[in-house]
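Colleagues,

For the teaching module next term, I've prepared a clean inverse folding example: a structure given as tokens, and then the sequence designed for it. I'd like students to try predicting residues themselves before seeing the answer, so please don't circulate the second half yet.
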């Protein structure tokens, strides 16, 4: 029974913890509120969105959308990029302030439009710390120090 407990803690808990942390991050970090963009802020207009499976390495246990977005500066030429997670079908045809990362390769929500910009990293840290403490508590309960010892008696026969 202890072997099953150790296998669970070492092989099942880490993937579940990762998926839980990804769920917290995408749920709190991908919610945006559409606001007016400043003149220099690039604007994205979603053309189409495709729903992705609810259990993925990038989204955790939450279903998310992969959208084709036309991105342009106000009045500039548009280029098509992919949005992973922060846009939904409700954003199709709506101007959304966006930003890019990694030399313009990744499209992300503009930090001014995020609903919970500071809560996502704090919740993620709390989730990771909580998951580590849960795993430590499970290992402590499975350890030999904590388990009652069986007494082994020696019988001495005097001849």
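(Answer key — instructors only)
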């Amino acid at each position: 029974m202890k072997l099953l407990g150790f296998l669970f803690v070492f092989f099942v808990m880490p993937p579940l913890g990762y998926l839980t942390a990804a769920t917290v991050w995408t749920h709190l970090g991908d919610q945006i509120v559409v606001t007016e963009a400043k003149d220099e802020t690039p604007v994205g207009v979603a053309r189409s969105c495709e729903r992705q499976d609810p259990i993925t390495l990038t989204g955790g246990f939450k279903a998310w959308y992969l959208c084709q977005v036309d991105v342009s500066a106000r009045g500039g030429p548009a280029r098509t990029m992919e949005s992973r997670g922060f846009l939904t079908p409700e954003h199709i045809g709506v101007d959304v302030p966006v930003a890019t990362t990694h030399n313009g390769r990744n499209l992300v929500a503009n930090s001014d439009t995020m609903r919970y910009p500071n809560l996502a990293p704090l919740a993620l840290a709390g989730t990771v710390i909580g998951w580590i403490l849960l795993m430590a508590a499970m290992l402590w309960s499975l350890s030999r120090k904590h388990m009652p010892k069986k007494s082994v008696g020696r019988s001495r026969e005097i001849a």
